[in-house]
Amino acid sequence: MTAPFVPLNSSQADTLTAEEQTLVNKGAVMQMYKPDEHSRHFIAHIDSATDPRTGKTRKIPNDSQAVVCFVFGIEDAEPARKEGRSMAECHYSPSQAHEFLFAQGWDRYHDRFFTRCYVQEGEGAYDKAVKAQQTHVDQSSSS
């Protein structure tokens, strides 16, 4: 059995406690997208679940389940946003920006969830910067 890849950058690779590493080795991992909070990881205990169709919460009958929760946060989102803005300034096409962000996200995390978060943040910044450039061009051409 292969242990799942954990989306930590090299500076965080040695920061798992023995308990966290044991949970990771068991595959007890959860990922969260919180780009306005700090990037981090922690042990969470799952003791209830919400039905996405009804919105009703139910207790999990056995003891709570421990998982290591990895958060895609500010420290992950900001480099993606910076790249997105830079690509808009250099007049990359939307598809070029997407491909570049995907490759960069995968190289950084080797994890589908975190790569998608990276792409989403980068594309958001790219779109915002392109729109700002177009607004600036429109205003200067009408003057």
What can you tell me about this protein's structure?
The protein has one domain. 50% of the residues lie in helices and 18% in strands. It is built from four helices and five strands. It is elongated. It starts with 17 loop residues before the first helix and ends with a helix. The model has no long low-confidence stretch (mean pLDDT 88).
Rg measurement, Å: 19 Å
Number of domains: 1
Number of strands: 5
Largest sheet: 3 strands, mixed
- Parts with pLDDT < 50 across at least 5 consecutive residues: none
Distance between the termini: 66 Å
Strand order of the largest sheet: 1-5-2
Structural class: alpha+beta
By DSSP (H or I, 4+ residues per run), the number of helices equals 4
Overall shape: elongated
Helical amount: 40-55%
* Helix/strand order, N-terminal first: HEEEEEHHH
Mean pLDDT across the residues is: 88
Share in β-strands = 15-25%
